[in-house]
Amino acid sequence: MSYLRTQIYLEPDQHRDLLQEAHDEGVSLAELIRRIVRRHIEQKPALRSPKETRRSFVGLGSSGLSDVAERHDEYLGKALRSDTTR
Description:
Blueprint: H1 12-25, H2 29-43, H3 50-56, H4 68-84
């Protein structure tokens, strides 16, 4: 994998804390920051690629029911009715 060099400015306590965390995890400071940035991007749908966004919907509404494909209209109607009665 190739990387782009980036310079950032941290407050001294941020730098110290991140260095300690990197040491504790056995990774470089750069790797720790890449992991933090990756987690941030994964939590922001607007920053994801369209493919990643589509993939994030898989299993989103896992209900444990085995007949959802056949009875989806019934389940959706039931969910909508219960939502409007709150």
